[in-house]
Fold this protein.
Amino acid sequence: MKRMGLLLGLACLASGCASTKYQDYRYFKSIGITHDIHAVENAGMVRSEDCQFTLFGYSVQGAPSFEDALENAVGLENTSFSQGMADTVNSRARLMKTNVRMMTNLQMRDEGWNLGFVGRRCLKLSAVAYK
Amino acid sequence: MKLSGARYTTSCSFSYTFSLAMVLSAGAMLFTTGCAGIHERNLLTVPVVSMTHSKLPKDYRLQSGSSFLTEFCEDDRPIVNTGKVIGLADQAILKAQKKHKATHLLDVRVVREGECVIAEGTTARAVRVEKRSERSRSAMLAPKRLQEQTPHATSNRMPAAIPAVSLGKPLPTSAKASLLGDVDEFIFTGDVLAPDADAPPEIFGSP
């Protein structure tokens, strides 16, 4: 009986350890801000994040946005949470002003904390920018 | 006493009914907003994306193909094994690239619907291009005019492949200028750009 319990415990532990975690994004080899992705100049490594607070599990301003993290990455002010197409187009227009044409090796990581009634979710981004 | 008891019961049932209605309506509101949130959420909208190619050399251009629509759900087997953490948008894009043998995807929009991610856009391949000379361009557009200018040119090959300078007779100055001048037109050669060395071999095979 003890042996069975031990086996079950081990099985539970193993299944817990092997559980898969799903994220919206994890890694992109390259992303073009414009259709012309003939990059000329390496603008260096960029890191940024987009964070949102949650109340009772519900996001106050929607989920952390990839587009906002991109904007932050190139040093633009985070003005709105872009969830719609129109906002996305505006985001891209702002990005193009910085002359960043593309980004390579984009790595995204979900981070945050949750105290039940209040929490914070962040999407952290790191990439190499090209102009 | 009995009456007061009845009153109490009535009041109690009323308050109970009232609070139940409140809870139900609040639940319905939460359910509705929750469903609206789950229904469709925009994850990504980009002009170009690739999971296999990082740079595009100058002599390569993107040749667009067909439109695509792929779906990847949490229960699906990953296209590329990325360990414990799986990016749903990554897998949807990889799936599209693998299915269409595309090096890049154009005008991509990725949305999340519940446990699934849907990607749509246009497939593209990075293909090496060669500059098409002005002469071969005019030959393509008006073959008769070219034959008048160079009467010895009897080849029936594709105009783009005619070695115009070696046709024999010297050409007029204006024609020479048009031959040597840069024209913003390219011919796709068919050489598809190889993926990066660290690209997942599941997509195109080993580089």
